[in-house]
Here is the input.
Amino acid sequence: MTRCLSWSDAVGGHDIGTGTGRTAVQRELGYLPQDLGVYPDLTARQFLDYVALLKGMDDRSARRRRVGELLEVVALTEHADRRLRGFSGGVRQRVGIAQALLADPQLLIVDEPTAGLDPEERIRFRTLLSQFAGRRTVLLSTHIVDDIAQTCREVAVLAKGRLIFRGTVDELTRRAEGRVWSVVTGGPPPAEGTVVSALPHEDGMRYRIVASAAPSAQARPMDPGLEDSYLAVTAR
Here is the structure.
């Protein structure tokens, strides 16, 4: 992220070329790592209050008010005074998004936020991210394609540290048009292309394959999905 930000002279009105500017950006930037480190003996309220102090929120009454607001926003009011050690992964992630929002950042960065969550918590978390994106930029780093399809308006694809695509979800999906195939065979899959999925079939196996041309005489074209498109652009 430091390397990315270095392309700009200013972030949020702060000059990141100076120590003071970098400190200001760090305080205002919201970040949720994949594995949030917490103090398990603290309650959710105590933990958020502690993080708020680290972000320079010195006014005690304002800090408590902000913590209370965020506990309500992420539906944690009933868990506010429970110790973090007893929280499930999904509830802990809600604590994580609350701490990331303490300074009301204009840029919120979340890294693999739904990894390991059950379907209900994944849906809840995606809904929260969509709501927060209305007032700020949310940068979602994930390998879970369904999260992108359900949450994002724009997508960027990185391969080996290089940006190889940037555009809307629909634009990315169109990159795989004419490159997705279904092949039913009693033997191994065709050598050409990338196998996306394999399902049992009465005649053997049905393979979904991404390839620039039909991988076999039996191949039938298929409508592309987002996962197909990711494989199509990274295969180049």
Residues 2-152 form a domain with the Rossmann fold fold (CATH 3.40.50.300). The first strand starts at residue 10 and ends at 11. The mean pLDDT is 89. The longest helix spans residues 60-73.
